[in-house]
């Protein structure tokens, strides 16, 4: 059996307590250097950032590229909420304890984080209006953000290619498909059109990227089950063949896609039992096997009134689910669903405080990015047509 998150947390806490007993002055330590190296590489990223301030010796050790590489192999990236603030048009990265670990400033306009992003990147949009629709991708290590124009009546999605790791955006029209690679100054490149008609946008969670595949909900009649098609971000070719969950009509406008802890998920409002929302997880990509993981007592059947999107499973057993919901005309709210009791509670103030929130997303940050940036980081934008 593998190590559970709870046992890992206990070990990290023990390492944290032991680390506080280490004398960081020039007097000889009682612990060998390799033991100190091993302990430091296992403490949480936030603690490691604080320990850099203890002494020059500690700072140099933690800043060593060899140490950073070893530490990153021993821990998953730090999960963070991405919160858009209407107050100062900044983005805040908030950990699962509600602590703001970074403020991204210099955005120049309100940006809305798109729900889930790959490691070390944050995808944002300006929303969708008739005049000016933009999407940007922030590299949390370099703080550079390429920005490009979208079209309000066209679909788009984003994700990371596998195995190259290139971050790409895809936008669709009725007769074209275009791909934009972050870091490539060539702008949008035309690719083969998808073998289906598609409307909507990822701002409405009609697309989701998982394991290098960008999944799309195609247009279908409301009573059709339909199939999901997906775009291979590495080869930049279209694939097909994933069926939806049993008896789920993909043509319904209130069906949404997302990424949840590395799996493709689908949000389906209950039809026969009004007032509930199902969360399906894709377990077998080749056989189109889905599992209904959660049934939440939340009514999202009216697409023009309320929607929700899961963000993160908070424990090994899948008993607690973090999700956000939004009423029309109201700021989004964070909730934690407890599967044991079939109830959820509002965690907005607990995790986000009292700031007026324009949007909520989710990302993860590697240790290298934690150590390479200050608390407040201005973003550097570049625009592509």
From TrEMBL:
SMART domains linked to this entry: FBOX
Domain of life of the organism encoding this protein: Eukaryota
All residue ranges annotated as the F-box domain in the record: 31-71
Protein name: F-box domain-containing protein
Species in which this protein is naturally found: Triticum turgidum subsp. durum (Durum wheat)
């Amino acid at each position: 059996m593998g190590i559970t998150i709870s046992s890992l947390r206990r070990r990290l806490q023990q390492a944290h307590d032991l680390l506080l007993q280490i004398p960081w002055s020039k007097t000889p330590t009682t612990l060998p250097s390799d033991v100190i190296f091993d302990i430091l590489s296992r403490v949480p990223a936030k603690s490691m950032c604080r320990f850099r301030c203890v002494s020059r010796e500690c700072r140099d050790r933690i800043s060593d590229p060899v140490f950073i590489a070893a530490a990153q192999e021993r821990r998953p990236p730090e999960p963070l909420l991405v919160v858009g603030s209407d107050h100062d048009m900044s983005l805040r990265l908030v950990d699962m304890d509600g602590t703001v670990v970074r403020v991204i400033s210099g955005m120049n306009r309100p940006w809305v984080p798109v729900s889930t992003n790959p490691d070390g990147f944050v995808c944002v949009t300006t929303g969708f209006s008739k005049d000016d629709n933009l999407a940007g991708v922030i590299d949390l290590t370099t703080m550079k953000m390429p920005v490009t124009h979208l079209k309000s009546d066209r679909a788009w999605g984003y994700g990371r290619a596998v195995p190259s790791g290139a971050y790409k955006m895809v936008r669709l029209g009725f007769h074209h498909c275009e791909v934009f690679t972050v870091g490539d100054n060539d702008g949008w490149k035309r690719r083969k059109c998808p073998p289906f008609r598609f409307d909507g946008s990822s701002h409405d969670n009609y697309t989701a990227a998982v394991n290098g595949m960008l999944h799309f909900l195609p247009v279908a009649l409301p009573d059709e089950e339909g199939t999901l098609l997906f775009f291979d971000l590495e080869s930049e070719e279209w694939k097909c063949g994933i069926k939806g969950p049993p008896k789920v009509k993909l043509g319904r406008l209130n069906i949404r896609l997302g990424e949840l802890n590395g799996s493709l998920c689908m949000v389906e409002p209950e039809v026969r039992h009004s007032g509930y929302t199902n969360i399906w997880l894709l377990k077998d990509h080749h056989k189109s096997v889905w599992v209904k993981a959660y049934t939440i007592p939340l009514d999202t059947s009216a697409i023009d009134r309320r929607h929700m999107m899961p963000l993160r499973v908070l424990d090994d057993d899948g008993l607690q689910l973090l999700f956000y919901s939004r009423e029309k005309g109201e700021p989004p709210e964070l909730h934690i669903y407890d599967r044991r009791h079939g109830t959820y509670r509002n965690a907005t103030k607990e995790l986000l405080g009292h700031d007026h929130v324009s949007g909520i997303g989710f990302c993860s940050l590697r240790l290298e990015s934690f150590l390479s940036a200050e608390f407040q980081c201005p973003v550097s934008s570049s625009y592509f047509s």
